[in-house]
Design goal:
The chain is an alpha/beta fold. The protein has one domain: TIM Barrel (Alpha-Beta Barrel), CATH 3.20.20.70. It has a four-stranded parallel β-sheet. It has a three-stranded parallel β-sheet with strand order 9-1-10. Strands 2-3-4 form a three-stranded parallel β-sheet, with helices on one face. The radius of gyration is 21 Å and the shape is globular.
């Protein structure tokens, strides 16, 4: 069962057409949880995407879509959390466990610099054997050798793990890592913040309120953060909107205190291969994956719901580039990043795990948008002309 809806007794529910009309206004009212659920379950697919596109145009330049040149780096895979849907982790001290040296990580960043990249997204597992000094030494080394690269590292659950090892509050861990060179805290580990779902999938991860707490601390320090969401666990629409509500409330709280908060919201679908969650679903004949239409509906709802988060990012990694292009017409303004390597989602079944800058530019231009390179703070950067002429394409796309 999903979270109960907070509906005033005797208050009639709106129909989806009324809600769409309200959200089509130039200054629409905030989308309530109840109205979001109605739109998610009932709204006409095309009408929903059209109003999401309308609102996306209010947040960002309607003629442009952005992308990032970055690299995903997984510094290690030892982890004690045992998430049912994770195919990447290994229990500590077992076969297949690895931990990269700072020199190995630096060599990977050098390859990113060679293609004019600006950010690494570096995460691992919750390793009980690594003291905070290991992380500090690594960050200091990387910052000294790669001063132009944004080091967006770890996740709230990793921060909690380091705090447990060290016996320090999470806010102190964040301060020390920031002083060592950490630029941002990625939004990994959120998945589903509603505990009805979360604790059944990852009981050792703890309540979603833990993730919220650490992210709020990161906001207070000015760390660059993103909010994320994974769907397809068998959760209800109310669970999905409940997840978004927790993020929106945190963003409200951070903004009220003068903090930037989340730069973007990013959602993707759970992958079911090579993990215990997928095996269990298959045994119960429940292994149907979230399809493109459902994912695009989720993106559209997120754009309407997050009136306090500027950017919505599409996921080509789990849905494919064609679907990511479609997301640009239904709420998303960013198509993601090059990644260069990816080890977590790919371990669970995704096959295409990297993109060139030219591929991302082509996808954006083919959809009729102007492609713009950005950094992890969504500052626009000089964008090279890679020779993609939209007018020479078969059936040139209409300009947005």
């Amino acid at each position: 069962m999903g979270p109960p809806l907070n509906i005033t007794e005797g208050e009639p529910l709106k129909n989806w057409q009324e809600i769409i009309e309200e959200q089509s206004q130039s200054n629409p009212p905030r989308l309530t949880v109840e109205d979001a659920i109605i739109l998610y379950d009932k709204a006409d697919f095309n009408s929903l995407r059209q109003v999401a596109l309308h609102q996306r145009r209010q947040f960002t330049d309607p003629s442009e879509a952005t992308y990032l040149i970055d690299r995903n780096i997984n510094y290690g895979n030892a982890c004690t959390i045992n998430c049912q849907f994770c195919s990447f982790y290994r229990p500590p001290d077992t076969e297949g466990v690895y931990l990269q040296t700072k020199e190995q990580i630096s060599a990977r960043i050098k390859e990113l610099e060679d293609i004019e990249g600006s950010r690494i997204l570096m995460q691992g597992g919750v390793d009980p054997e690594l003291p905070i000094e290991w992380y500090e030494e690594m960050l200091t080394f990387l910052k000294r050798n790669h001063p132009s690269i944004h080091l967006d590292c770890f996740s709230p659950i990793e921060i909690e793990g380091i705090a447990k090892v060290c016996g320090l509050p999470t806010i102190d861990i964040l301060k020390r890592l920031q002083a060592a060179g950490m630029h941002g805290l990625p939004g990994g580990g959120a998945e589903m913040l509603v505990d009805d779902v979360r604790l059944g999938l990852s009981p050792k991860k703890g309540s979603g309120e833990n993730w919220i707490k650490v992210m709020g601390e990161a906001h207070s320090l000015g760390l660059i953060t993103t909010a994320t969401n994974v769907i397809g666990f068998g959760e209800t629409t109310a669970h999905r909107i409940g997840h978004m509500e927790k993020i929106r409330e945190l963003q409200d709280n951070s903004n009220e205190q003068g903090f930037q908060g989340f730069t973007a919201f990013i959602s993707w679908t759970v992958q079911l291969d090579n993990n215990t969650f997928g095996e269990k679903r298959k045994r119960n004949n429940q292994d149907k994956k979230v399809g493109p239409a459902e994912y695009l509906r989720h993106v559209a709802i997120s754009r309407l719901f997050f009136d306090n988060i500027t950017h919505i990012q599409a996921s080509w990694l789990t849905m494919g580039m064609d679907v990511a292009q479609l997301a640009l017409f239904g709420g998303a303004d960013d198509i993601g990043s090059t990644m260069m390597e990816e080890n977590v989602v790919s371990a669970a079944g995704t096959t295409k795990v990297l993109c060139t800058e030219k591929e991302l530019q082509y996808a954006i231009i083919r959809a009729g948008f102007k492609a713009r390179r950005r950094d992890s703070e969504y500052n626009l950067l000089a964008t090279p002309n890679l020779g993609i002429d939209s007018e020479s394409l078969p059936a040139p796309p209409p300009k947005q």
